[in-house]
Design a protein that fits this description.
The complex is a heterodimer.
Chain A (H helix, E strand, L loop, with lengths): L1 H28 L4 H6 L5 H11 L5 H13 L13 H36 L4 H15 L2 H15 L9 H4 L5 H27 L2 H8 L4 H23 L1 H15 L4 H11 L2 H29 L7
Helix pairs in contact in A: 1-14, 5-6, 5-9, 6-9, 7-9, 7-12, 9-11, 9-12, 10-11, 11-14, 12-13, 13-14
Chain B lengths: L1 E4 L2 E3 L7 H14 L1 H23 L31 H37 L1 H15 L3 H12 L3 H28 L2 H9 L3 H38 L10 H9 L7 H28 L7
Antiparallel strand pairs in B: 1-2
Helix pairs in contact in B: 2-3, 2-10, 3-4, 3-6, 3-8, 4-6, 5-6, 6-8, 8-9, 8-10, 9-10
The chains are: A mainly alpha, B mainly alpha.
């Protein structure tokens, strides 16, 4: 188990380096000259040269990259042009909200998706199966930001059950209800489909025939034998969906004005605040890679066969 | 040569010709009502996209100050926006941008990705490892997050959106193509071809590429709806197609600014996206059933 984790950590390093190179390249491709931004449209040649030297912009690109990387690794992600605050401060302020949103959404997707998937598989071909599959395919077809808007119209504007936006600090936990429902519902289809497919495969196994032959009740066959085996691929799928979830969080937070990392990125993009854009992209990508690693390790813990690969 | 009816001839090799294969695919699709509905939906949206300017009842840029932010009516089935423009006409014109983004980005991504995957898989060794690690870096980013960063950097336009989405698709197509190649590479008839002296290019084009066709086609059918959703998301956030040019995404953004006055402006473009993506997903599911090696039908 230890060797498996070490191997995965070893391959993590080049990926993280690669991410940093890509973000650095994007920083340099971004339009606008920082010297012009600081000194005005027509700086004198001397002022421009002096500032470029101070900022290290006259050094060769590889050297600039290492200086930048060194700063990143020490948490110095730059300063937001519009908020005039360190990027790292802004990100740390917003991270808890996004974590809460992601956690609540996954909980909704799993709590709704797994039972629906099991029912869909055990009552295959029935009305419930068709209805569940329709809900699932609608979930992956609807733009997540549009679903959010629909929920605002229905539950905020028509009946004033939930606020249309705002932070948990101002409104309490109720501010998370519609956003997590939005993100969770867009994700429930995937969980349901995977559970259904996995459960069907599980139920066709020989051990299920044996269980039935032994005289076990149908619910025992489904829930004590078939389901635990069916859950393994579902766990992988949930892990694979983390990227989609993060992408969905950006859009959901933008719709509900939830002050999370996603809306920070959306606002930064709208304001073309490049230090903030690149800092938050780097952090999100690094988090994503780490979360995938954790999911892989958890999966290896659950299914020992994975460790042998 | 034998005949089953006057004018129809049956040749034993007929089933392996591209036309024969296409016919078999269409026949299988027609048997499943969901796939058929999906195929019809895709066809309708494609036709609307091609003939969009001729299908709009009002000009998509024509303002009407007497009818601002109105709900649905006979004159304006989807209502009007805050400048009095007909939302239905704007949705129809937006179909062109969204479908173009969907098809073109997928085509470019599929072409480049498949080529990279086939070369990488066939070459093997360090080249294969190196290419796959570079592609892993692109896959290491959540898709929309990377798309946003690229769009903010390169500037908002339809061309950039198509390029960005194509770029995001390259690793997925490369992986699928490479997977097919790795399977076929070890087969006896490939080894035999190599021994006999058939050139690598010939082997790749005549044997490897046709066998990778199935999984690639399935991925294409799943990528087009993903591209449409990504373009809509980018336009919604303001880094995709810029107003006044209509796109389904920026129409929803317009609508979200007017929810209290007239929520319909946001509802209809989103409904259109959902129906379009649903059609592609149903068609994609049908194609997956055909090309699924286990032949499992839902």
């Amino acid at each position: 188990m230890g060797r498996f984790i070490l191997r995965r950590l070893f391959f993590l390093v080049p990926v993280l380096i690669g991410i940093s190179v890509l973000v650095f390249a994007l920083v340099h491709l971004a339009p606008g000259d920082p010297v012009v931004a600081m000194l005005g449209i027509h700086p004198t040649a001397q002022e421009a040269t002096r500032l470029r030297h101070e900022l290290g912009l006259d050094k060769p690109l590889p050297e600039q990259y290492f200086v930048w990387l060194w700063r990143m690794l020490h948490g110095r992600l730059g300063t937001s042009v519009y908020a005039h605050q360190p990027v790292s401060t802004l990100i740390l302020q917003r991270l808890p909200t996004t974590a809460e949103l992601a956690g609540a959404s996954i909980a909704i997707a799993v709590l709704a998706g797994i039972p629906l998937g099991v029912l869909s598989a055990t009552k295959r071909g029935g009305v419930l199966d068709h209805a569940a599959r329709l809900v699932s395919v609608l979930g992956i077809s609807m733009p997540v930001f549009w679903l959010g808007i629909l929920l605002i119209i229905a539950f905020s504007l028509e009946v004033h059950w939930f606020p249309p936006g705002g932070s948990v600090a101002e409104q309490g936990a109720i501010a998370l209800v519609l956003p997590s429902l939005t993100l969770g519902l867009s994700f429930v289809g995937v969980v349901m489909r995977m559970t259904r497919a996995s459960m069907l495969e599980s139920l066709s196994g020989d051990y299920v025939k044996t269980a039935r032959a032994k005289g076990l009740l149908e619910w025992e066959v489904h829930y004590k034998h078939a389901l635990p085996n069916a859950l393994l691929p579902v766990t992988t799928v949930i892990g694979l969906q983390v990227g989609t979830l993060l992408s969905g969080a950006v859009l959901t937070e933008a719709v509900f004005s939830l002050p999370g990392l996603g809306s920070l990125m959306a606002d930064a993009v709208g304001a073309r605040d490049y230090p903030l854009i690149m800092g938050s992209v780097l952090v999100v990508a690094a988090l994503f890679v780490l979360v995938n690693l954790v999911v892989d390790v958890l999966y290896a813990l659950i299914d020992p066969r994975v460790r042998l690969r | 040569m034998s005949s089953v009816a006057p004018g129809i001839e049956l040749s034993p090799l007929r089933a392996v010709s591209p036309a024969g294969r296409a016919r078999r695919i269409l026949h299988s699709l027609a048997r499943d009502p969901t796939s058929l509905a999906g195929a019809v939906g895709v066809l309708i949206f494609t036709i609307v996209a091609i003939f969009a300017p001729w299908l709009t009842p009002h000009g998509p840029y024509t303002t009407d100050v007497l009818h601002l932010t109105q709900g649905p009516s006979w004159a304006h089935p989807f209502g009007t926006d805050e400048l009095g423009r007909d939302v239905f006409s704007r949705v129809i014109i937006g179909t062109r941008a969204s479908m173009l983004a969907g098809f073109l980005s997928t085509a470019i991504g599929a072409a480049i990705g498949t080529a990279i995957g086939i070369v990488s898989g066939y070459a093997g060794g360090w080249l294969d490892e190196g290419i796959m690690r570079i592609l892993d870096i692109i896959l290491a980013f959540p898709q929309v997050v990377l798309a946003i960063a690229l769009a903010a950097t390169l500037g908002p336009s339809l061309t950039n959106v198509i390029g960005i989405i194509a770029f995001l698709f390259i690793p997925q197509f490369a992986r699928v193509a490479r997977g097919s190649v790795l399977v076929i590479k070890e087969m006896d008839y490939i080894t035999a071809s190599r021994i006999v002296g058939v050139s690598r290019t010939r082997i790749l084009l005549d044997h490897v590429l046709p066998n990778a066709f199935g999984p690639i086609l399935v991925l294409i059918s799943l990528s087009i709806p993903s591209a449409i959703l990504t373009e809509a998301a980018l336009s919604f956030l303001g880094v995709g197609i810029q107003p006044p040019a209509p796109s389904w995404g920026n129409l929803i953004a317009d609508g979200s600014n007017n929810l209290l006055i007239n929520p319909w402006i946001a509802v209809f473009p989103g409904l259109t996206i959902t129906v379009a993506v649903l059609a592609f997903n149903c068609l994609g599911d049908g194609l997956r059933d055909i090309f699924d090696p286990h032949g499992v039908r839902k």
